[in-house]
Amino acid sequence: MDKFLDQFSLSFEDSFSPVNYVAYIVLCAALLYILSVIYNKYGQSISNRAQLSKVLMIVGLTTFIIISIVKSSLALSLGLVGALSIVRFRTAIKEPEELGYFFMAIAIGLGMGANQLWPTLIGFVLLMLIVVLQHKSSSSSITQNLLVDLECDTDKKTELIKKISDAISANTTQLEVKRIKHQEQSIAINFLVKVTSLEDLNSINSKLIAIDPKVHVTFIDNTL
To answer: What are 12-43's pLDDT values in tens digits?
Structure first.
């Protein structure tokens, strides 16, 4: 019975070490800083990443403090569950990527607050490697919406469409026709293209101009 009641009592005097606490919170802050740098450099969110990176530090360190307090007492742990059940976020997460980085910050705070140094470090390093590799794989190609407007006679539209498609496909790794709009004396085509470099876009533009100098070519970024 005494052992059961001891679970509901605080034991900071026996287990709390100020030196270890400061060391862990400094290391936690260092990991969160690295996370914020990675988010600023490799994040794809449209919103202000610099501002969100500061919030990641606050969220992670707050989680660290909470876990370091409640881990020594079952009563505090149960009280935390009740307290968090009434907390509601009024600001919606605009992009899934933001939610992912918030969970990373919380995981760092949880691990360091529970004195789980090596699992936290190993998991953090692996996560950062995944983020960097994903960014490199996505940045190796450029996806663009290509709009081509060209004046032509009705009997030449089929031939021009083939010439335009062949000129574009020669410099792309992926080509999809999204829309073709026929008018009396003109044609408008919307392509979705994927290229490996900006030079490919310049080459496509040059080839389309060679087909007809009056062609109107528009490239629109498809990542937004």
So the answer is: 445 678 899 999 999 999 999 999 999 988 88
- pLDDT, tens digit (0-9, with 9 covering 90-100), for 165-215: 999 999 888 888 889 888 888 899 999 898 887 888 889 999 999 998 989
> What would you report as the CA-atom Rg of the chain, rounded to the nearest whole angstrom?
28
Q: Which residue has the tokens 């079952």?
A: 74
Is residue 146 a contact partner of residue 192, using CB atoms and an 8 Å limit? Answer: yes
Question: Does an H or E element contain 103, and which?
Answer: helix 96-113
* Spatial distance between the Cα atoms of 193 and 170, rounded to a whole number of angstroms: 11
What letter does residue 196 receive in the DSSP assignment? S
> 35 and 120 share a domain?
yes
- Domains of the chain: total: 2
| pTM higher than 0.70 | no
* Beta carbons within 8 Å of 147's beta carbon, 6+ residues apart: 188, 189, 190, 191, 216, 217, 218, 219, 220
CATH number (domain holding residue 211): 3.30.70.260
CB-CB neighbours of 94 under 10 Å: 12
Of 94, 117, 139, the residue at which a domain comes to its end is 139
Which of residues 122, 139, 156 is at a domain's end? 139
Identify whether residues 170 and 115 lie together within a single domain. Answer: no
| Whether residue 15 is found in the same domain as residue 98 | yes
Distance CA 29, CA 26 (A): 5
Domain that includes residue 214, residue range:
142-221
Q: What angle do CA 70, 74, 79 make, to 5 degrees?
A: 70
